[in-house]
Design goal:
By secondary structure, the protein is α/β, with parallel strands linked by helices. The protein is built from eleven helices and eleven strands. The protein folds into two domains: 268 residues, Rossmann fold (3-Layer(aba) Sandwich); 75 residues, Monooxygenase, CATH 1.20.1280. 32% of the residues are buried.
Length: 384
């Protein structure tokens, strides 16, 4: 009976799991500005939750080396959460991916460029042709909610009121006037009822008038850019605690989901974006499908733990030899050539781990290098 119950449970899980409707890969850096890091963490959790509800695969990585032509085409939509690629080969791969029909959604800092700065405008195709906005030209402060206005009836703005409140955000303005670009379709802008927008303290950080697009698409490509993606943080108090949520506006969340679904199917034949009200009445997917998404992440965590355990065992194996050599003051049985090549090889493994940002590889080889280098030092110090 015990085995029968187990079999039935497995059969239930397998039978209930629907095939994913599409797949998403999100790139992020998570290195600079606590507000952007906070958004990335929140966005990953939110998109993972939506993946379980709407049955799509959501993967995320901070390893920009995965931005290759072959890797990108394994996914239906690519997201840039808080950055753009800076490596020339990654940029070429992304441009080719987009120009051959690839789909992209970018948030906030993914559109930032300012010369001179740490993020100069040195990618003309991306900032002027693809995004159309050119360089960053200023922003509001501090992050505040705004009334947003639908500029057009479009699948991305379906089921949204004519104006709606956003989540708190730091809003950007741009060098180029997107209204003059025939290739750009502005979807959402800041409504005039938002002014004055921002609280300063600097005067230029408070907007009193003007036209500011915040969501748009380029009609030549499959893309949507959203200026949202900067949480309010406790900088003044020194705690760097998150004070707001970029996903606190239900209408804004609908806008994001609409944009994602529209990118997957511009003809709106197989995937219908759903408003929050629709979501309450729609037929829910199998409730245990979320279990599979959770289990997949759990398996990845177990694999990482396995790698750490394996690396720990092989590293600890050196410890008795290091202690023995140190206590005895003799290293005559150790091969200088062998340990020289071994340390060099471990150093290369450590560099490799840093490049691919693999924690088990980094930790194991860093500790192994310390212990192996100690033996090499003892060999050179103890002549006998």
């Amino acid at each position: 009976m015990r085995y029968l119950n187990s079999f039935l449970l497995i059969a239930l899980l397998v039978g209930c799991k629907p095939n994913p409707r599409f797949s998403v890969l999100a790139f992020y850096s998570g290195k600079h500005d606590a507000a952007h890091i906070s958004f990335v963490q929140e966005a990953n959790a939110w998109f993972y939750q939506q993946a379980s509800i709407y049955n799509f695969d959501y993967d995320t990585t901070r390893n920009w080396n995965k931005l290759t032509e072959s890797s990108l085409h394994n996914y239906d939509v690519i997201l840039f959460l808080d950055a753009r690629p800076d490596d020339s080969l990654q940029r070429m791969a992304f441009q080719k991916y987009i120009e051959t029909g690839g789909r992209w959604m970018g948030f906030h800092f993914a559109g930032f460029a300012l010369t001179p700065s740490a993020y100069p405008q040195n990618w003309d195709w991306y900032h002027n042709q693809f995004l159309g906005a050119g360089e960053y030209a200023g922003n509001t402060w501090r992050p505040t909610a705004a009334m947003l206005k639908k500029e057009t009836d479009h699948p991305t703005t379906k089921n949204l009121p004519a104006t709606f409140s956003s989540a708190p955000n730091e809003w950007y303005r741009w060098q180029n006037d997107l209204r003059l670009n025939n290739h750009i379709q502005i979807l959402v802008s800041i409504d005039s009822t938002s002014f004055p927008l921002g609280t300063g303290p600097k005067a230029h950080e408070i907007w009193h008038s003007g036209y500011y697009p915040v969501v748009w698409t380029n009609k030549n490509y499959h893309m949507v850019y959203l200026n949202m993606g900067h949480n309010d943080m406790d900088y003044e108090g020194g705690t760097n605690q998150t004070l707001s949520s970029s996903f606190s506006s239900q209408d804004q969340n609908t806008l994001i989901l609409n944009s994602l679904f529209w990118l997957v199917d511009k003809n709106q034949q197989t995937i219908e974006p759903l408003s929050m009200a629709d979501n309450l009445t729609r037929k829910q997917p199998c409730p245990v499908s979320a279990v599979f998404l959770y289990c997949r992440k759990l398996v990845m965590n177990i694999v990482q733990i396995l790698g750490l355990a394996a690396g720990s065992c092989t590293t600890i194996a050196f410890l008795p030899q290091v202690i023995k050599t140190w206590k005895s003051g003799s290293a005559k049985d150790l091969s200088l050539g062998m340990f020289s090549f071994f340390c060099f090889g471990v150093l290369l493994w450590l560099i490799y781990g840093i490049i691919i940002q693999d924690v088990p590889v980094i930790v194991a080889n860093m500790l192994t290098l310390i212990l192996a280098s100690s033996l090499l030092y003892f060999k050179l110090r103890f002549k006998a």
